[in-house]
Amino acid sequence: MNAIPNLPTPARPGPPLWLLAELTYRCPLHCVFCYNPVDFARHEDEISTEDWIRVLQQGRALGAVQLGLSGGEPLLRDDLEVIVAEARRLGFYSNLLTSGIGLTEERAVALKAAGLDHVQLSFQDSTREMNDFLSHTKTFSLKNKVGKIIKDQGWPMVMNVVIHRLNIDHIDRIIRMAHEMGAEYLELANTQYYSWAFVNRSQLLPTHAQLKRAEQVTEEWRAKLGDAMKIYFVAPDYHEGKAKKCVNGWGSMFMTIAPDGFALPCHTARLLPGLTFPNVKEANLRDIWFDSDGFNRYRGTGWMKEPCSSCAHKEEDLGGCRCQAYMLAHDAEATDPVCRLSPLHHTVQAAVAEAATVKAQEHPLVFRDPANSRRLSP
Amino acid sequence: MSALTLQSVPRVASGFRLQFEPAQECHVLLYPEGMVKLNQAAGEIMTRCDGKRSVAEVVTELEKAFSTTGLEADVIGFMNVAKEQLWLSWE
Predict the structure, then answer these.
(1) Lowest mean pLDDT among A81-85, A196-200, A211-215
(2) Which residues are within 8 A (CB) of A11 and not within 5 positions of it... i.e. 6 or more apart?
(3) Which of A281, A273, A274, A275 is nearest to A257 (CA)?
(4) How far is it, in rounded angstroms, from Cα A106 to Cα A12?
(5) Measured between CB atoms, which of B21, B24, B32 is closest to A158?
(6) Where does the pLDDT of residue A137 fall: very low under 50, low under 70, confident under 90, or very high at 90 and above?
(7) A302 at B interface, C-beta within 8 A
(8) Left if phi > 0, otherwise alpha if psi is -120 to 50, otherwise beta: which for B9?
(9) Nearest chain A residue (CA) to B35
(10) Angle of the A138-152 helix axis to the A105-114 helix axis, nearest 10
């Protein structure tokens, strides 16, 4: 296989089919696994409504079709309805990714009228709220209420639950609750260890045994529910020994716009050193997508080192995730250490093995809030 | 939902949206966080599944548009697959 190594990168990538608009880093929650950058409090600027409208128009002209409206908590932007209406007018399929906090009936009606296509409701059972969640108190009743509001508008409901060591053993209960709330899709997303989840990794990594049990329980529910609710179990790459084709390939179909207007190939790419990314206030999306250094840097396979560059699987996984390579190997061009072929794979195995030990409990959880953000990123 | 007959009136299922994408030069079916690119035949069938035309009418129209006959089995076959994928629904 691969008789011709280092085939040149295709000259012209396809369109950025997926545009993720991170409207704000502000959030009422303090999730310990949040994927917003740890230094979010250093990026408080937010681009204007007009800037977002222009981004949508330029993105759609480029061929973008799926639009994620995310955050932080996107409902904190009071121009969300205006943004949604423009997205609908342009022909985007719009997805609101929300905690549900702030989704009143009134707001839901306005968003529906503006043309919002779908709401993904996430559960944020960090430990502070975990008790609430498990004891069916405040959080549970709020989610139930929001779930009903979503159903009343006729939106398909996708429920997303980030899975980690502190909630993985409750997976049976989580699936039952999603089903009782009438979700059409349930995403059981194992935590990906970036940003805040990386800070809290030793507390959040599940053991192999926990993971196996969770997969069994999920299978049992799938057999029971059939088509009534589709359950996606997003496997964690730390445990699998297999690198993922991150964002389906750097600069291949995914573009994130951060709250302050920086355009990124993925929402954590800003942590990579030595890369600059353009801002939508100064550049248009077409130039950013096709011609910017940041988006071209890791396109294709030409940038790879060994063992990736001669690997038979390099087109399948594209070497894994650049951010993870940088975080774990301190080299953004290295093989993603979650891959069993990485010379550093033992460090990932050691982290998973430690999850079953007392040592893993030693670090207190760090909650995602502005004070911790400033403390961790001076 | 009953078995498909020539009198059934299929429509694109709720939560899905069908549209033509110039950048991809094809019809696509959009759904929560996902997209299916349709080939030309699938696009021609799906665009006629509007909750008004019956299967018989869709077949007649397609045969006329492409100056051919005998499309019934293929159209019904596709619609049944599309139902399994949750793309189409009918009473």
Answers:
(1) A196-200
(2) none
(3) A281
(4) 45
(5) B32
(6) very low
(7) no
(8) beta
(9) A66
(10) 40
The pLDDT assigned to A132 comes to 56
> What ipTM did this prediction achieve?
0.86
Q: What values do phi and psi take at A107, rounded to 5?
A: -65, -40
* CB within 8 Å: B23 and A62: yes
Residue A123 scores a pLDDT above 80: no
Chain A: residue whose CA lies nearest to B86: A227
Q: Is the pLDDT of residue A128 over 60?
A: no
Nearest residue, CB atoms, A93 vs list B14, B17, B86: B17
* Confidence bin at A210 (pLDDT 50/70/90): very high
**H or E stretch at A236:** none
Look up residue B67 and give its amino acid. S
Please tell me what DSSP assigns to residue A170: G
Q: pTM, whole model, 2 decimals?
A: 0.90
Residues 6 or more apart whose CB falls under 8 angstroms from that of B68 comprise none
CA neighbor of A60 nearest in space, from A21, A16, A13, A12 = A16
Nearest by CB: B15 against A62, A156, A227:
A156
A374 has pLDDT over 60: yes
